[in-house]
Amino acid sequence: MAEIIRQVTIRGRVQGVGYRAWLAHTAEAVGLHGWVRNRRDGSVEAVLAGRDEVVSEMIERCRRGPTAARVEAVIAETAAPDVLDLRQPGERFSILSTL
């Protein structure tokens, strides 16, 4: 199976509701690697890398998010491998500082 990388932007009420922790935990549990962070515009940004079908399913899960979230939009785009370099050294999936 081919590995893909998607950069995902999630908009709505997604900050202050545990979205980053939920996304990191869920992504790791299904075997993905990458990172997630809040953005100053109120959105959450993530990079998801792994098998195509697993990444696609995770993107669908992002449309729901954790219980307290209210997701309005999820935008997923193909990303280059170098975006994974933002992860913390030695971590499979990182929660990064706000950008």
UniProtKB/TrEMBL annotation:
It comes from Rhodopseudomonas thermotolerans. Transmembrane segments: none annotated. It comes from the Bacteria. Keywords: Hydrolase. The keyword Oxidoreductase does not apply. It is an enzyme of class 3 (hydrolase). InterPro entries: Acylphosphatase, Acylphosphatase-like_dom, Acylphosphatase-like_dom_sf, Acylphosphatase_CS. This is acylphosphatase. Pfam families: Acylphosphatase. It catalyses: an acyl phosphate + H2O = a carboxylate + phosphate + H(+). The active site is at residues 20, 38. PROSITE patterns: ACYLPHOSPHATASE_2, ACYLPHOSPHATASE_3. Belongs to the acylphosphatase family. Its EC number is 3.6.1.7. SUPFAM superfamilies: Acylphosphatase/BLUF domain-like. Residues 5-97 form the Acylphosphatase-like domain.
